[in-house]
């Protein structure tokens, strides 16, 4: 069985690195910044397309390619009809949520922000919608109370390959079953940018903490502006100190420890950084 792989980033690299040792890979498509994937393909003499494949850009590349299955892992680009219809058997994507919930971008970050207790991984058919294709496999993953976006993604890394291989094994044995998504249960979350990370100190303290841990390092981070400086906050905790004070939300109540007022209590800022460098906020305060 021959495969075509669409992959980006470190997650895509780790999956490809394992697949390339066990399966026949006819070609790989990736973005120009995924250097690990590019090097891996060159080292293994795998045909490679770099860049956005849309609007016919990959037409010449795929014109002589024949594959049984197309797999998308963390791929940055929208997959158009000419690619979806290329494989003889099926095209499927690995998505980081329990579809139909959390369609769209960075679903693991949104799951933490929304205080979910579990999320998961879904293998689903690729169609021309956004994460709307029939479900092939799912795995539930627990979100613990101190989970960050990065630690949750680490759990994904250990689960992607087994799910992919389960699907491929079922393709080989002709035992694959399709579960069509219930549109009434679908939720969608859009692309996030670093500018979207600003903390609103009028939020409840629980949401603020979820907001912080979901975006903690090495992600761009949740942030607040203080004395014209962007302070990225990577860790906070709850404290009973100053709960009944009448200061406005966002007011710094103490420097050592650093305590900030919220509508339903006080939080302690434990770890901060500025432009990827850890710093001591006390010096700014």
From TrEMBL:
The keyword Aminoacyl-tRNA synthetase does not apply. The keyword Transferase applies. GO terms for molecular function: methionyl-tRNA formyltransferase activity. Residues 193-275 form the Formyl transferase C-terminal domain. Keywords: Transferase. GO terms for cellular component: cytosol. SUPFAM superfamilies: FMT C-terminal domain-like, Formyltransferase. It holds the Pfam family Formyl_trans_N. Residues 56-153 form the Formyl transferase N-terminal domain. Its EC number is 2.1.2.9. It comes from the Bacteria. Transmembrane segments: none annotated. It is an enzyme of class 2 (transferase). This is Methionyl-tRNA formyltransferase. It comes from Marivirga salinarum. The lineage of its organism: Bacteria, Pseudomonadati, Bacteroidota, Cytophagia, Cytophagales.
